[in-house]
Automatic annotation (TrEMBL):
UniProt-listed SUPFAM superfamilies: NAD(P)-linked oxidoreductase
CDD domains associated with the record: AKR_unchar
Name of this chain's protein: NADP-dependent oxidoreductase domain-containing protein
Ranges for domain NADP-dependent oxidoreductase: 14-280
InterPro entries linked: AKR2_Oxidoreductase, NAD(P)_OxRdtase_dom_sf, NADP_OxRdtase_dom
Coiled-coil segments on the chain, per record: none
PANTHER family documented for this protein: D-THREO-ALDOSE 1-DEHYDROGENASE, NADP-DEPENDENT OXIDOREDUCTASE DOMAIN-CONTAINING PROTEIN
One Pfam family it belongs to: Aldo_ket_red
Domain of life: Bacteria
Record organism: Dyadobacter helix
Length: 311
């Protein structure tokens, strides 16, 4: 397991996303939320495998409580890097003190649920609210959280690629969580990933498998996702050409990008954790084929690469 050093912390190359531990999540997830025994086994396996970073949020059902129970009841919970998130509702963006009250209450609830005194990393869980308005209050929110001794590293979980220039040079924003995958190359095309790397940010990449869309049968798609059918067919063809599974191709595409500190992955059982650990050891895609793949998927419609628009 490789690690990225930021301050006094070392973040594992893989981060376990725990939304599935707190609620039913993922378009291809037919198993639902794991039971108590399975969750315990998963967390123990994760730590034993060298993964020391966990991603959660107030909005992830009882995910924080699940992690908190593990930390309190297991010696293996010591030394974990916990990443959680808070929201700022749009009506509070123009009222800094109301925004602070909302942020303070949310982070305090996270600390209580997790059973810790300070969050190693705390991010704004940004949605579709204008980033211009967000950045008027976010740096001050992070400064105050640090002053209160509630967090060490502050940042933002970005929603749109065009959000990046607004915070990449902001000193208080040290960490960023971004969506990026073989279909969603917007942050590669617009230079956003390179911008974050040059600024020395801690970069977590989520949605590597596009919330499980890559594993859906093209013939079972409906609604807006029906438009993804030819792209999924082509993805399978590229995987065959690379002599890799779709998972290996999608994972290594992101793994080998410069500037990626840690890949956030989700799981509903121990097998999926082992599979992601194995993906970490996969061979790289030949540069010539990688160029073909990048070109083929460089302009996928936003309705496909933005899960919030799948409804």
């Amino acid at each position: 397991m490789k690690y990225s050093t930021f301050g006094s912390y070392q973040f594992s190359q893989l981060t376990l996303g725990t939304v599935q531990l707190g609620m039913n999540y993922g378009i291809s997830n037919e198993a639902g939320q794991p039971g108590l025994e399975e969750r315990s086994k998963m967390l123990k396996l994760t730590v034993a495998s060298g993964i020391n970073t966990f991603d959660t949020a107030r909005q992830y059902g009882n995910s924080e409580e699940v992690l908190g129970e593990f930390i309190q009841n297991s010696a293996g919970g010591k030394g974990l890097n916990l990443v959680s998130k808070f929201k700022i509702h749009s009506q509070n963006l123009s009222h800094p003190e109301r925004a602070w009250q909302e942020v303070y209450a949310s982070v305090r609830q996270s600390l209580t649920a997790l059973g810790i005194a300070k969050l190693p990393v705390c991010l704004l869980h940004k949605g579709e609210e204008p980033v211009r308005e967000v950045m008027k209050v976010l740096p001050e929110m992070i400064r105050r959280l640090k002053a209160e001794g509630m967090i060490d590293i502050g940042g933002i979980s970005a929603y749109f690629p065009e959000d990046i220039p607004w915070f990449s040079e902001e000193d208080e924003i040290i960490a960023a969580q971004i969506p990026l995958n073989i279909f969603d190359q917007r942050l590669i095309k617009n230079g956003g990933l390179s911008q974050l790397e040059k600024a020395g940010k801690l970069v977590f990449v989520r949605s590597v498998f596009l919330q499980g869309l890559f594993f859906m049968s093209p013939d079972h798609l409906s609604g807006r996702l029906y438009a993804a059918k030819p792209h999924l067919v082509q993805l399978a063809e590229f995987a065959e050409k690379a002599e890799m599974s779709i998972a290996q191709l999608a994972f290594t595409f992101v793994r080998d990008l410069p500037g990626v500190s840690s890949i956030v992955f989700g799981a509903v059982n121990e097998t999926q954790i082992r599979e992601n650990l194995e993906l970490l050891r996969s061979k790289s895609v030949h540069p010539e084929l990688l160029g073909q793949i990048s070109a083929a998927f460089s302009d996928i419609p936003e309705d496909i690469v933005t899960p919030g628009r799948w409804k």
